[in-house]
Amino acid sequence: MSDPADEKPSPVISKEIWIALIGAAATIAAALIAGYFGLLSSDRRSSTPATPAPTPTTTAAPTVAIEGPLTAPLGQRTYFTIISQNAVRAEWSAGGFSDNRSFEIEALGPSHQIWIEPTDSSRVGESFVLVVTVASAAGQSATAQRQFQIVAAPP
Question: pTM of the prediction?
């Protein structure tokens, strides 16, 4: 027969150790589950292209101004500068001057120079109005006017 003193006592795991082991297993399981779903959602985000920010459908309205002298000497070229923003084309005319023709400018830049050359001496002293109308790519328009007077050529 065996002696009870020779037998080793069976190890006893206390209640606190069991609670700690269950808590550790639950924490690891929660981290694995959260990591798995986090990877799934980040993979979904990377495979879906980002939606670009909406662009405004309205474009800025064009503006136009005319710079130049108030007088145009007879027999000399007088230059005027059309200054515009957000415009792609222009039409200009000087009412009663050059047979009332209008001139078109396609591919209008922000600054464009035009000229007139009065040649009829009977018109010295008369005033004319230079009118420029510009248009944007969206079809919006703006108009500017500049009055000038024909004067005798300097001696």
Answer: 0.60
